[in-house]
Write a structure and sequence with these properties.
This protein is mainly β. The longest helix is centred in the N-terminal third of the chain and has 16 residues. The protein is globular.
Amino acid sequence: MQKFKLNALMLALFAANSAIAATEELPEETSKTAQVQTDVEVIEVRGFSRSLIQSLNQKRFSDTVSEQISADDLGALPDISMADALTRLPGISAVRTGGQAAQINIRGLSGGFVFSTLNGREQVSTSGSRSIEFDQYPSELISSAAVYKSPKASLIEGGVAGTVELETASPLNNDQTHKFVANVRGMYNDRASEVSDATEFGDRISFSYQGKYLDDTLGVALGFARLFQPSVATQFIGLAYNDRKDVDGVPNDTNGPIDSPESEYISEGFELQHLGGEETRNGYLAAIEWAPVDNFKLKGDAFLSRFDKESFARGFRVKLGGPSAAYANAQLDGNAVIGAAVNRTSQSYTRVEIVNDDNQDFDEVDSFGVNADWQVTDRLNVNADVALSRAKSNFRNGLLWSLVAEDANAETPVFDNNVAINYQLNGLNLPDVGFNQAAAFSDIDRVMVSKYGIYPDQTEDEVTAFRLDFKYELESDIFSSVEFGARYSDREYSRKRSVFEYGNDGAFSTTQPPLRLTDDMASVVDWQGDFSYFPSYLAIDLDKALNAWFPDGTPEPVQTWGNADGVDDAQGYTTNYSWSVLQSGSVFEDVLAAYVMVNINTQIAGLDLSGNVGVRRIETDQSATVLENVAGDARLGAQNIVDENGIVNDLYAPNVLGTKYTDYLPSLNLNLQLNDNSLVRFAAAKVMSRAPINRLAGDASANVSDDGVINGSSNNNPFLKPFYADQYDLSYEYYFEEGNGTVAAALFYKNIDSFVETLSIENFDFKGNGFNVPDSIEDPVSGEQVATTNGIYTTAVNNGEGGYIRGLELAYTQVFTFLPEPFNGLGANASYSYTESEIESITSLGGDTLVQSLPGLSNNVLNATLFYALDDFETRLNVRYRDEFVSEQVAINEQVVNFDAETVIDFQTSYRFSDSLTMLLQVNNLTDEPTQSYFGSEQRTGTTQYFGRQFYLGFTYSH
């Protein structure tokens, strides 16, 4: 069996790094330390084992506290996306969306605190925030990844949690003159058969080529990766407790809200849904490198990702009807109703909607860059970089509501007011439900389509950046070199909202009457598996229904005022759609940053000390377009604002609001080599993360619910400042003599100054604060005018109260090459992190005002991989556990709830038939682990969502 000198490799890498940093000859002691030890030999390892060792080498010789993933780690058994790959690293966890990791949490901080780069360049996102969607980056096109947990001055600012750096191929660094790799896999989801019309099978295909030409002076890399997969889920969703009613009748009850102590909290309702659809991701990579002389290299690269998602959500949306509904046999958890017999009254809006939602999301991510690296002299290096990153998202949320009629065949159909609902939540298990109309839900003679709505949300985000860096080698026994440079970036984010609605989801409209269904438009759907006891319902063919309802073609959604205050001619609109105009606009951000950093290479008490110390200065100029309600006062800038329909509103003044600020971010990284195998790292820095880009957009909106309650929001604020933190890291790393593993322990502490917090104000005077809200609305049942009442207004502020986040990370990796055959192919890779924080937030989504932890923080996160290789066979089992945490509820925007602990298990195996051909089998979510959430108490159910197992089988060809 072939052997190689692994310790020699490590020491050589260390020596090479030191040589680059040093100005002339190393001190005698350092030179002796760096001598190659030729008498140490270790059995060579390949595949996953080899990739782990390469990752450890990269981590070992990094000048910061970091985690690394090598190219081989993503080669033989590639993950679905970079999100899956990154969650194997210590202190990193993921939030699953649709069963798939998309955003990551680092050290208890959510994705908004994570800054990401591709080839060292800032990446914008389709999410509308600053956190990128990692599932848009195919692992097949990424050659390496690093997570910097401690910053240095030369890194772009933005990551309080950490900075994720993704790298694509550098063809001139490839060992082979020409290299071609192809992957072909088929995919199957075992829960797709439970969802009517869902796709069961998918595929993954990727090709890549790297070549060197003209005596290795010209390099070319090309890559393509395609993912087509079904997206399925079966779910129950509990809605927030946003109403109150005295349901227990206990006299002198004082446990309720301050303004209504006799009342209990009641939920808006719940949803039972089948989700199905298809996801198609196409990724493209191109790079060209030119090195005409030894001291100059020019590289241009491009990365493109197209991620299209088309999905449907079918089932029931149950509206319990608010405080006007009749409640009997109420079951309480504390002061919240978790079960009852609910009946519709003449004053309530209690109903069961049969929903057939259709969602489309078309995302584009582009990244382009040109980099020139010039070694001007033996001591001076100059690097110039020009970058463009842009993202577009076109999300079209289409909703089709159906209601039960007394007789759908009547000349003038009548909505069936006899609605009775029985439900009992069962904590994290599925609820018990019963409906008096259950038989009608699948009866074409009872169900009628009552409303259609489509709500497009289009965003664009683009940043252009210019960067110039210098590095000068010094003649010093302490500092090996000095680095300095500057970066300018210009970013623009824009959002456009639009709307089209027809009909009524609370009753049958007389002016926009419901649609009578025919046999070819609908089919009966039965629930299966764990959900099989829920009543059947009608799945409606959206295209056929809309063609029948709108024979001249379905009108396109528009950005419009509708029937808003300030409009003279609403052109037939009866609803206020001013939100579609007010929530549209742009954000502008100019950043000029400069830094200086000196690299340390010296000795203390005979021990090698390396690292860096520096400071980064950042000037930020941010602003956003807003429409201010100035009550039509021309002296305050009121203008005629015209929408896409030509409707004119004269109440508003267009404006651009914003702020400027300057920050100084010092940083220190020290690495003390205790001996050949162990080192201690210490890092200290001030870090920042800017507020999500969409939170800077100027928006203000208010809406009136079915029962006349006005709620509104101005969740965004163009004056929001960044999050700031002072952080400290201390770690110890021990690398085994054989070079086949490591043990590491790290402590970290972050003191965060402030957070962006959404403040809720009850009984807010909307009219008095300039909002366009009506004094009364028409009751959908009686047709009478009902006076509106003030509800909750939310807005974003820098709360000024921060706190600490601190924790411990332990990591262990070892390939057991010392065991006798065939056990010498065994290995283990495990990490554990404990994180705690004093930072808390307040939530009332579960009724009672409760304290919840920092979003994204799990106290305990465990990641373990057991792997084995024997000749051409390799297999591994990965287990990822995180305990309860707080995040946005699946499928419910802006409801930050508690998520239950989860354990996700993945299995992968491969067999190599030859040096070129390998067969792979992969099973994700081996135990079909659901996502489960709740509102403060487990008895107040949030989401229970099952995604199914994903099976992949295919081949890799490499030549």
